[in-house]
Amino acid sequence: MMPAATHRPAGPGASGVTGNPPEANQTAAARHVRALNDTLRRNFVGGRIVITAGVQALDEADRAELLRRVQAYQEFDTDNDPFGEHDFGRVDVGGASYYWKIDYYDADLVHGSPDPADETLTRRVITVMRDDEY
Length: 134
Description:
The protein is an alpha+beta fold.
């Protein structure tokens, strides 16, 4: 498994951001990161898609439903999306909880990206996992 490469603080709401949705105070670069992340999540285009062993073990119908729910996810708020980047979410399928997460790597997929808004420097990876695999 690849090393984590993101600048998100640990845990929901760890930034202490409250009040307006994160999008209200975003820079152009942050809005661009959000758009790139939304493209990857909604279309599975613009990066790599990784599913963990727990997701792979699902039957085909449940796995397809899980991926459909990840693509349709819109439940972003200041607790699960403090930077407004749309890079993390949780969905339930078949009575189980799953997370998806987008990480930003350098062009060689070795280190974190120096600038997640720069598509020439960044490789996005979305990982879909069971909650106990997080």
